[in-house]
Specification:
The chain is of the alpha/beta class and 389 residues long. It is built from 15 helices and 9 strands. It is globular and about 55 Å long. The two termini are 36 Å apart.
Length: 389
């Protein structure tokens, strides 16, 4: 989603200064970001085909590279294979998913001094202790599996440790938050998908899912449930965000909500802007355009919108505060969505900005132990508990 006009409320918010105390806490903590769309961006922009392409150097076309991950103090990064809903019409979703997962593997092999593939909570701790960044695999869009549980098992074998059930459009077995419901939540096959994920130790991710789908997941899942990149609807009414009821339900499974960094999902007026976006998106979909035509039309519409104004780190931490109040300190984390968003809050344009979250948490009176949980401790626990199921 591109830069759409948004009149953010900024009174009481502003830039913040990094202190040595916050930087020390950040350095000593295990920092885990639960959602990053870099693989798809690399393939879409054909960066991997450019001679000499490396993440060891600044990549101006991305929000992610190794120097900026280092600056951000990131110890573990979940890279997702994002599968466009277009594949539900054109086919090839499973192939696209495998291609992106294989790219994540290739990137770890080609950057052995900085990256190493992690498939367990213990891997994360071990890799981080060696001064490297643990690279995990997630899948975004359950339609990738093309209604075949064998494909889901293949993703797990290749290292995927969570799957987002939907993206913006309802699938054959799960309703999405941006689309018209067809199943009242999960279909019977959708419930089988959740149970299969529980059995193999793959976390169920409810970001993008409709409220009824989330409710069904909470009833069916025997393992902790996550929202890898969602925020609080009580602050911003985006359909992508979670109600207090659902936040409490996710916490009740032992799971967690990982806050998205996109301003549209953070500032209070975001829901109003999103409604206009969804209206235009839905109208274009009804025209049955080819994927390329649809994207051209959406890009043209977005370019006609005035740019979004300021969103600060404080807006982001408001969501963390709210989730802590609703669900407790053990059930919140970070899911930036970098390389899947057009920009982040001021001072956080890319993966280098994570220390500012630590600083704002410290400014608001969080203890060192509480900050460590938010930055990565909670995700490590949830991943470990998911492995046991």
């Amino acid at each position: 989603m591109g830069p759409i006009n948004l009149l953010a409320q900024t009174e009481g918010y502003g830039e913040i200064a990094l202190s040595e105390e916050a930087l020390q806490i950040h350095r000593e903590a295990l920092v885990i970001d639960g959602h990053n769309d870099m693989p798809g961006n690399i393939l879409d922009k054909k960066l991997n085909l450019k001679p000499g392409f490396t993440l060891n150097e600044a990549q101006a076309e991305l929000q992610t590279d190794i120097p900026r991950l280092r600056k951000g103090g990131v110890d573990a990064q979940v890279f997702v294979a994002y599968i466009s809903p277009d594949h539900m019409r054109t086919g090839g979703g499973n192939q696209a998913c495998i291609e992106q997962i294989e790219l994540i593997h290739q990137l770890t092999r080609s950057h052995p001094d900085a990256l190493e593939l992690a498939v367990s909570a213990n891997d994360i701790s071990r890799i981080a202790s060696q001064g490297k960044i643990a690279a995990l695999v997630g899948v975004e869009g359950g339609h990738a599996m093309e209604n075949d549980l064998k494909n889901l098992e293949r993703y797990y074998e290749l290292g995927a440790r969570y799957m987002t059930l939907t993206h913006n459009e309802t699938t054959d077995w799960a309703d999405a938050s941006y689309d018209a419901p067809r199943h009242g939540g999960l279909s019977s096959f959708g419930k089988k998908v959740v149970k299969s994920m529980n059995k193999m130790g793959m976390l169920v991710d409810v970001s993008h899912a409709s409220d009824d789908t989330v409710r069904d997941v909470l009833r069916v899942s025997s393992a902790p449930v996550i929202a890898s990149h969602s925020s609080a609807k009580a602050i911003c009414s985006s359909r992508r965000n979670l109600t207090d009821e659902l936040i409490k339900g996710i916490a009740g499974t032992g799971g967690m909500v990982m806050v998205n960094f996109f301003p549209l999902f953070l500032v209070p007026e975001g829901g109003e802007v999103e409604a206009r976006y969804i209206e235009h998106y839905t109208a274009l979909r009804a025209k049955n355009l080819l994927p390329e035509e649809f994207q051209e039309e959406m890009n043209a519409w977005e370019k006609r919108q005035p740019p979004m104004p300021v969103c600060y780190v404080g807006h982001l931490v408001d969501h963390i505060d709210h989730i802590v109040k609703v669900a407790g300190i053990d059930h919140v984390g970070l899911g930036s969505d970098y390389d899947g968003i057009t920009y982040g809050p001021v001072q956080m344009p890319d993966v280098s900005g994570f220390p500012y979250v630590t600083q704002e948490l410290l400014n608001r009176g969080y203890s060192t132990e509480e900050i460590r949980k938010i930055l990565g401790g909670n995700f490590l626990r949830v991943l470990k508990e998911g492995e046991k199921s």
